[in-house]
Amino acid sequence: MRALRILLIVTIVLGGLFVIADRVAVGFAEDEAAERLRANEGLAATPDVSIKGFPFLTQVAGGELDEVEVGIKNYEADTSAGTGDASDGAPAKIRIDNLTAHMRGVAFSSGYSSAKAASATGTATISYAELLKAAKAEPVDVTSGVTAQVVGLSDGGNGKIKVEVEATVLGRKLPRPVSVLSTVRVKGDTVEVQADSLPNLGVQLAEDKVRLITDFQQKIDGLPGGIRLDRVEAAADGVDIGVKGSDVDLVG
Length: 252
Known about the structure:
By secondary structure, the protein is of the alpha+beta class. The protein folds into 2 domains: 2-125, no CATH class; 131-219. The protein is 24% helix and 47% strand. A hairpin with a 2-residue loop joins strand 9 (178-187) and strand 10. The protein starts with a helix and ends with a strand. 28% of the residues are buried.
């Protein structure tokens, strides 16, 4: 019995040491991956990297991690449509808030210089203030004597965006902005906003002329690791986007 008790104590101690070693190793790996991701993507701040699954050391021995979660607070994505104020020739940017990606089947090289996920899904938010930059920022001549511009975007309920249009008709500014509900969708790598109906500006206007103001789009390039837009929906503080990808580069 004494020998069995000693064996049990030794087993518990070794098990505890293994768990400690495993957690220390995963913490080191998370910090290293986060720093490399920051450098590779040119991020202003170090992202959060969380390696899921236990034990970590057996996953390392197999050369593949079950799941890795990456969180980036403020990601500056390129907009090759050029809808910014990048007068210096630099690519226009759009800020994406709280980008979280769940990567599965992450295989890495022996020297940890590269890591690639078999698949990835995630979510993020583009604020209405950021999306407004894609709309017409200056008044546009809709027809003779009529100018208009989008001055506000907000949640319209039921997955719609409320678009507020300010107009001047024959030299007189309308007393308040006119609002319309718009549908938002993803088409390829572009977020598109299209009015469900046309705003009443008090004069008869051709639909294509009005839609020059109400309808707009924002192309989004260069998401981390090669993930891409998948879906989009209007929400309280902005548009919630879903992203996905395969063979996604986490490091390297």
